[in-house]
Design a protein that fits this description.
By secondary structure, this protein is an all-alpha fold. Helix content is about 65%, strand content about 0%. The chain contains 29 helices and 6 strands. α22 packs across α26.
């Protein structure tokens, strides 16, 4: 699996040269986050958000208050200076200005203007205070942005110039003082601005190269930016990345772990290794088929993908093993197909082909049904073709692409051929697998059940009573096996062949003695025992000559187990004065190894016993069945197979019901009654 899918995860490399045209369309094999470009986008989005301001209604009153405090401080200093005596030292102008620095704050009033204010009279200062605070309150009663502060200050100068009746120097000082206290009252809201810009950054989507996105088209110039993107996508790097191969290994381990958990109990215990080998061969056969088809489609003929005959593998798995195993395997193969068919896909996984493989494989398994007749495989192939065509149509319609008639026809034709190839491969490979590995499939069993088989015809012609007996045992054992979940078809076919050894000496068996003396009446019990006990092994040899499967050989050898030939044993005891050991009159064995063989042995004994009854009744039939099963259980005939007591009880009930249907009561006809009355 790793070898098949290795190339599908190998990182792609491109041969491009900076500032030269691109030789082909180059797509990104993976999604790549462009961190630098993302950060640049976020920065631009953040910068695009304008500052958020709010209108401070109290700013005008606050500035008027500050101006008032400044003029009051000047007036207070003047009053203190006026009260000083002539001989006391008076403050210089610089000292006066320094004393009001704290009150002045950030107001930009020149020392000259402050000097004019210090030299003004108290009345003049009061007049300036009244006029300036009025102008400030009036102008700042409206919203003033930072950019409009200068305009507001110019308006203040115009108002003061028109309304003040001061000397020019005082008027200029009043204008400068008023202008210095006019500021913007639309204040930046730092918190709201920060939140808004953060939201703008967060709303920016990450810049990325999407998986499958065309980085550069064929013929376009490979610029520095394009080359950088190719580097980020890992298309120009010479370094080998082991991540895809580790990922592939984990993918395979997960698939095989799940598959092993399902199949570990699915194979027959006796043929576990053989069945496991066959399963692995069919699994790898399906996997390699997909790989070969995917390589054929690399050239750009995508329609060839749909020709893959995956249903062949799933149909053979169902016919050789079980429907459940075939379906689970088909799911695993469809997951593998997602990787195998990614050559021309924009993504690392081609889920379209995975879906197609899944539907195609299921169609083959479902249509075969439970009978597994080989001539149904051809019809199953056509059914798969029909389902494949529907799948392709559904895929094309869902993708809503623009396709030419030639493209659509090619894809539908490939889908049809896929189903046809699946049936041809199944019919061709199934007999080969059955022959090489000696597998007894359902189809093989049905083939062996044909009455025209040379061995069955030999029994029919040379031992007709045995043939009829085998048919009766087949009916009984099949019903009994199916009642306990065993292989009913194997039991039926095994019953057909279980007594073929009697055809070697047919007249030594009572069912074939028609209007003739019993030869056992004239020979010694030990010789009779030798003749009777030889028939299972004679039959096994005959079956081997015809190269029938081992399971049929085992049924012929084991159906009598090591049971005792009671009739001849008691006859020998009566004729001999010595004590005779039971082991001398037992079948050599081996004992039954499977449920099917054990049930056939019981059915064989039950059919012979019930047929010997002159007037079988339901009660007598039940008693005989229970007696035979109890005797075999006590004799240890079931010790080497995995049949349970509960299953034996179910077998007894099923045999009883089946025999009641066979030996039902009949109404005597008038002619028969007339013949009986005189007697």
């Amino acid at each position: 699996m790793f070898t098949v899918m290795f190339s599908n995860v190998t990182p792609e490399k491109v041969d491009v040269t900076l500032l030269e045209p691109s030789p082909a369309d180059i797509r990104s094999p993976k999604a790549v986050i462009l961190e630098n470009e993302t950060e640049e986008r976020k920065r631009k989005a953040e910068t695009a958000v304008e500052d958020i301001y709010y209108y401070d209604k109290g700013a005008g009153l606050e500035q008027a208050r500050k101006l008032t405090e400044l003029l009051d401080a000047i007036q207070k200093i003047n009053e203190v200076e006026a009260k000083k005596k002539k001989d006391e030292a008076k403050l210089t102008m610089d000292e006066k200005i320094s004393q009001i620095n704290d009150v002045k704050g950030d107001a930009q009033v020149s020392p000259a203007s402050l000097g004019v204010l210090f030299n003004a009279s108290s009345d003049r200062l009061e007049s300036v205070k009244t006029l300036s605070t009025s102008v400030i309150s009036s102008l700042m009663n409206e919203e003033i942005e930072l950019s409009k502060v200068q305009t507001a200050r110019e308006n203040a100068e115009q108002i003061i110039s028109q309304n003040a009746s001061y000397p020019d120097d005082l008027k200029d000082a009043a204008v400068e003082l008023t202008q210095s206290f006019i500021i913007h009252n639309k204040v930046l809201d730092y918190e709201k601005t920060r939140v808004k810009r953060k939201e703008a950054r967060d709303s920016v989507q990450q810049a990325e190269i999407k998986e499958g996105e065309v980085i550069v088209s064929e013929g376009d110039l490979v610029t520095a930016e394009v080359y950088k993107r190719l580097e980020l996508a890992g298309l120009t790097s010479k370094k080998i990345s082991y991540k895809p191969f580790i990922g592939l290994l984990l993918f395979i381990i997960l698939l095989l772990a799940g598959l092993y958990y399902f199949v570990k109990d699915s194979f027959n215990k006796d043929n576990n290794k053989k069945h496991a080998v066959i399963y692995v061969i069919l699994f790898l056969f399906s996997l390699i088929m997909m790989k070969v088809v995917s390589l054929a489609g690399i050239s750009g003929h995508m329609y060839l993908y749909f020709i893959v005959p995956i249903a062949a593998g799933t149909m053979m798995l169902k016919m050789l093993f079980s429907e459940q195993l075939a379906l689970v395997t088909n799911i695993v193969l469809s997951l593998c197909a997602a990787l195998i068919f990614n050559e021309n896909s924009a993504s690392s996984f081609n889920f379209v082909m995975a879906l197609y493989i899944l539907i195609s494989g299921i169609a083959g398994v479902v249509y075969l049904g439970k009978k597994h007749i080989k001539n149904k495989i051809i019809r199953a192939g056509f059914f798969v073709s029909f389902v494949n065509i529907c799948s392709v149509l559904f895929i094309l319609l869902v993708q809503d692409g623009t396709y030419s008639a030639a493209e659509t026809g090619a894809e539908l034709g490939a889908a049809f051929i896929s189903g046809f190839l699946s049936s041809v491969l199944t019919l061709g490979l199934l007999p080969v697998i059955e022959s090489w590995f000696g597998i007894l499939s359902t189809a093989k069993l049905i083939e062996l059940s044909n009455p025209n088989h040379p061995l069955l015809r030999k029994v029919l012609m040379e031992a007709p009573g045995t043939y009829h007996h085998s048919i009766m045992v087949a009916n009984l054992s099949e019903a009994a096996c199916e009642s306990v979940g065993a292989n009913g078809l194997l039991a039926r076919v095994g019953s057909y062949y279980h007594d073929v050894g009697k055809a070697k000496r047919p007249h030594f068996f009572i069912e074939n003695q028609m209007n003739m003396e019993n030869p056992h009446d004239k020979i010694a019990p030990h010789l009779s025992k030798t003749i009777i006990t030889a028939h299972p092994y004679d039959g096994a040899d005959m079956i081997r000559e015809f190269k029938l499967p081992k399971e049929i050989v085992d049924i012929a050898e084991q159906h009598h187990g090591t049971t005792l030939l009671k009739y001849f044993y008691h006859k020998a005891c009566q004729q001999s004065d010595k004590e005779i050991s039971e082991s001398e009159f037992r079948y050599p064995g081996p004992k039954a190894q499977t449920k099917e063989t054990a049930i056939i042995g019981v059915s064989d004994a039950v059919e012979a016993a019930v047929r010997s009854l002159s007037r079988p009744t339901p009660v007598k039939i039940e008693q005989i069945i229970k007696k035979i099963i109890a005797e075999r259980l006590e004799d240890g005939q079931f010790d080497e197979c995995d049949i349970t007591l509960k299953e034996l009880d179910t077998v007894a009930t099923t045999l009883s019901n089946t025999l009641k249907g066979i030996f039902h009561s009949r109404i005597e006809y008038p002619e028969e009654m007339k013949k009986v009355e005189p007697k």
